[in-house]
Design a protein that fits this description.
206 residues, six-stranded mixed beta sheet, globular
């Protein structure tokens, strides 16, 4: 009989919380906004207990862009955000400062997001505005990559397909950052914990 391999538990550095973040950024389907000019326009974040995966606090804020102040119709439809949302918002320096003040209420957390976009977007905007990137020394976990590795999948799935694989939702793909962060949190037991998806990858057609 073939011996089963023992799955290694995903190692996490000592921490109390998991900071799960999702963002929306300026964008266009006509290539009028370059990647290095995209700006964060909304932040959604959850502070999650590492042991129970329960949400202990939430944060949400709109950010007013500086380089492309008028949102494209594609961007508004893609992220369900309006021009007035950003027109009446704080600029990045002020908005990020509020985000940092919220983070300061907690200690020993790990920064998590579904993919690499959130980390790269924060770094890019902090560099542009000459703002200290406070998460630079915080451990970062790419949940999308870890989900594929943990579940031994052949490819990395977007959040919507990952939710369907885990049978968390069948026809819902969250758009708003706070909703995306919430669903990413629901997948934590499959990313960091011991939960396993059913062998249903074949049902998902790329």
């Amino acid at each position: 009989m073939k011996k089963k391999k023992i799955r290694k538990q995903f190692y996490l550095p000592p921490c109390n919380y998991l900071l799960v973040v999702a963002i929306s950024a300026t964008c266009c389907d006509q290539q009028t906004i370059k990647g290095d000019e995209m700006e964060v326009i909304e932040i959604g974040a959850l502070m999650v207990d590492k042991e129970t995966f329960e949400t202990v606090d939430t944060f949400q804020i709109f950010i007013q862009p500086e380089r492309h102040v008028t949102l494209t119709s594609f961007c508004q439809n893609e992220f369900q955000i309006t021009q007035s949302n950003v027109d009446n918002a704080l600029d990045f320096i002020e908005g990020f400062e509020l985000f940092v003040k919220w983070l300061d209420k907690y200690n020993e957390y790990i920064f998590c997001a579904w993919g690499q976009r959130e980390e790269l977007a924060f770094i890019q905007d902090c560099n542009f505005h000459d703002v200290h990137y406070v998460l630079d020394d915080v451990e970062y976990v790419n949940l999308k990559k870890r989900f594929a590795s943990r579940q031994r999948l052949k490819k990395k799935y977007g959040l919507g397909k990952a939710m369907r694989l885990a049978e968390i939702a069948s026809d819902v793909t969250p758009v708003k950052p706070l909703d995306r962060a919430l669903f990413a949190t629901k997948l934590l037991p499959f990313v960091i914990g011991s939960e396993r998806i059913k062998p249903a990858e074949k049902k998902l057609k790329s």
